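Q: Given only this backbone (612 positions), what sequence would you predict?
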């Protein structure tokens, strides 16, 4: 069964029960079950009007029901658990959950409004439960995947912790809580799959169709799904004890449902893109961040906001900060000719006769006369170039990666870098120009671009999962072709790091957005790699209309003024945008080959938030 959301379901209150599922008769609170014993079904009918707070099955088929007013009934649960349940109820404790680890025997946990009683739990699980109570948070749910061992989920009033669960299940827990909801229930069928409930929303994978349908029935009637339990033999129980709460609109869900006229998941499928991550900045803080799908098609690892993707040409925008940082700290001024700082002679076509210089500022604005790969045909000409160009193909798993100097000399898989047109005369988007900036940075600092950016930009901004290294030691997404197949070697390598080699995640990009917004609008300098004056230069129009230094600009002079850059590497697409005056922005990273998806997600974000 595919992942589905209840909001996509029509109200189903009038549907007949599927299979052996039976609705409660004349109950204050509805419940549904299937595949349970006649006694369990009868007791649910008796106790549902009092509001079921917990229903749980033991691995051997026992079961227990507890209501919100302290009534309970159990059959076949461990004696010690039954005795403790009676004592807690007599003492007036409100029971939040009972759970039984899949190992069976005398292993169980009861959480209440005032603490926990447990026997035979994994030590880390019990420690986590106790730590929440010590912090003043009641534990509302504990769940155990059927594989057993040290695998569990603990849900507190305002937090959750999971260990050893399916990665997509964790992804969905994270996703739901980003929208201002609290996780309330997690449940695992013995045959695999999971359900994650967060107040008025839920996700499910691999649960019986009849169970999922009845979850929709409850939600369609305005009820909150409070209890989800799966019997070891395949049966299930659903119950509620009240209507779903009135909560503020969930903007995460609004975005997910406005992507290209469909849902985000549907568009991912249409574009054959296995994984996407998104983060949004509001009030110059990361308001939410989510992951969707997988880091690699067919793999177990889900895409999370912390996962690193190739940012492709966003590399240029981030490199621009490093260039301005160098100028600010005693390096060449933006107006300087780059050639004396290369330790290498920049070739020049015979038809370039002007004495105009390829300045650093012109390189940042793609107007330095260094035309990108693909636009250099015909060779020797200074105009009438073929379309397309500006990027680099990268190097696959079987290719030898050239040095930066070899790239510049045309000894890799791209033409040599040269002055092709008169500097300042024309705009030609040029990754080759950023290779020259990379060479300048490395010649001036005596180290690699990766080391320089880590020290001077990433560390000061807290960008802990960003690197220009060829193969950084992060959790990395794999690239995919237009048909959704993993590209050879999973990721190409880009020695042209400044132009295309950045690895990062959406959280780091949004940290950058937040800082740029604040630095741009501040009355003076704030902590970070650039002064306010340098940030103003970065985000002000330079030699190219509509462009700052390494960033594209829009809406100058309006409250909707923004800066942005997108990216396209083999198997990856990316986009980020910031709005300084609105204190807003977003980042989208995808491991597919069609830019349409990231553009549609960006459009959905803008529509939901009303940004231009």
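A: Predicted residues:
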């Amino acid at each position: 069964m595919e992942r589905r959301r209840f909001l996509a379901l029509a109200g189903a209150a009038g549907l007949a029960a599927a299979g052996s599922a039976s609705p409660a008769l004349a109950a204050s609170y509805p419940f549904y079950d299937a595949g349970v014993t006649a006694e369990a079904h009868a007791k649910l009918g008796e106790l549902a009007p009092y509001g079921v707070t917990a229903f749980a099955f033991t691995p051997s088929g026992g079961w227990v029901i507890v209501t919100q007013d302290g009534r309970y009934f159990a059959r076949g649960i461990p004696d010690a658990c039954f005795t403790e349940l009676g004592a807690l109820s007599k003492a007036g404790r409100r029971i939040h959950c009972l759970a039984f680890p899949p190992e069976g025997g005398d292993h169980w946990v009861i959480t209440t409004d005032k603490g926990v009683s447990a026997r035979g739990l994994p030590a880390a699980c019990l420690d986590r439960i106790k730590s929440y109570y010590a912090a003043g948070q009641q534990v509302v749910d504990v769940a155990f995947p059927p594989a057993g061992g040290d695998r569990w989920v603990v849900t507190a009033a305002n937090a959750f912790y999971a260990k050893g669960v399916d990665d997509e299940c964790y992804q969905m827990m994270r996703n739901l809580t980003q929208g201002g909801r609290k996780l309330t229930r997690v449940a695992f069928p013995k045959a695999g799959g999971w359900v994650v409930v967060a107040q008025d929303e839920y996700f499910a994978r691999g649960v019986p169709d009849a169970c999922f349908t009845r979850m929709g029935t409850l939600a369609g009637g305005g009820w909150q799904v409070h209890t989800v339990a799966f019997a070891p033999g395949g049966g299930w129980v659903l119950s509620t004890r009240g209507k779903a709460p009135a909560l503020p609109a969930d903007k995460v869900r609004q975005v997910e449902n406005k992507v290209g006229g469909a849902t985000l998941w549907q568009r991912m499928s249409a574009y054959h893109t296995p994984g996407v991550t998104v983060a949004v900045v509001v009030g110059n803080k990361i308001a939410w961040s989510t992951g969707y799908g997988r880091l690699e098609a067919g793999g177990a690892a889900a895409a999370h906001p912390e996962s690193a993707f190739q940012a492709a040409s966003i590399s240029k925008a981030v490199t621009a900060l490093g260039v301005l940082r160098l100028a600010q700290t005693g390096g060449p001024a933006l107006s300087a000719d780059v050639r004396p700082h290369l330790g290498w002679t920049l070739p020049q076509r015979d038809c370039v006769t002007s004495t105009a210089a390829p300045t650093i500022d012109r390189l940042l604005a793609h107007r330095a006369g260094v035309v990108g790969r693909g636009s250099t045909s015909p060779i020797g000409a200074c105009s009438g170039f073929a379309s397309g160009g500006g990027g680099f193909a990268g190097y696959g798993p079987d290719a030898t990666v050239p040095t930066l100097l070899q790239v510049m000399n045309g000894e890799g898989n791209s033409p040599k870098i040269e002055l092709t047109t008169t500097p300042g005369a024309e705009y030609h988007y040029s990754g080759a120009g950023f290779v020259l900036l990379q060479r300048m940075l490395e010649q001036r600092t005596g180290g690699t671009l990766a080391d320089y950016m880590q020290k001077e930009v990433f560390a000061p901004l807290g960008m802990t999962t960003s690197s220009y290294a060829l193969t950084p030691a992060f959790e990395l997404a794999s690239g995919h072709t237009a048909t959704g197949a993993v590209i050879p070697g999973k990721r190409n390598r880009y020695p042209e790091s400044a132009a295309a080699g950045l690895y990062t995640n959406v959280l780091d990009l949004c940290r950058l957005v937040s800082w740029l917004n604040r630095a741009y609008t501040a009355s003076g300098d704030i902590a970070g790699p650039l002064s306010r004056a340098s940030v103003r230069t970065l985000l002000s129009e330079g030699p190219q209309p509509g462009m700052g230094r390494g960033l594209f600009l829009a809406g100058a002079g309006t409250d909707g003024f923004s800066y942005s850059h997108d990216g396209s590497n083999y198997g990856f697409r990316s986009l980020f945008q910031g709005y300084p005056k609105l204190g807003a922005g977003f980042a989208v990273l995808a491991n597919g080959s069609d830019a349409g998806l990231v553009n549609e997600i960006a459009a959905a974000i803008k529509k939901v938030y009303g940004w231009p």
